[in-house]
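To the wet lab folks,

You asked to see what we're planning to order before we commit. Fair enough. Below is the target structure as tokens, and below that is the sequence we designed to fit it. If anything looks off to you, flag it before the synthesis order goes out.
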């Protein structure tokens, strides 16, 4: 059974940093890409970043480019999202997902399997 466990959310002041983790079980990161999405209150879910399984291609949404860094540790079967220079508009529930398309210039807006969300709150 494919499972994703997201963690690392919390409350941080604007300009601060957080690192989210997404640990996978039931499949290997060697075999599938992982993506991060977020959904703010009253807003639609948006794509944030992804890293492909095949060759490590990475995508970032324009809104996070230069501030967020995605990485993976295959030995731990875990993907990380390092978030720096956080802004109040980054406040959202962040979800990791797999079974998606991850390319250099884009990522799919849908995914086959989702983890539970982790809440990130950035205060001004």
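Sequence we intend to order:
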């Amino acid at each position: 059974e494919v499972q994703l466990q997201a963690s690392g959310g919390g409350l941080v002041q604007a300009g601060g940093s957080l690192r989210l983790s997404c640990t996978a079980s039931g499949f290997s990161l060697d075999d599938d890409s992982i993506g991060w999405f977020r959904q703010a209150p009253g807003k639609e879910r948006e794509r944030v970043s992804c890293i492909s399984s095949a060759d490590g291609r990475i995508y970032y949404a324009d809104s996070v480019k230069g501030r967020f860094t995605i990485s993976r540790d295959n030995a731990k079967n875990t993907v990380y999202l390092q978030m720096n220079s956080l802004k109040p508009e980054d406040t959202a529930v962040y979800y990791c997902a797999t079974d998606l398309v991850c390319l250099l210039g884009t990522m799919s807006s849908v995914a086959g399997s989702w983890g539970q969300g982790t809440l990130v709150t950035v205060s001004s």
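Structural context that might help your review: Residues 8 and 20 are 4 Å apart (CA to CA). The chain is about 0% helix and 50% strand.

Thanks,
Computational group
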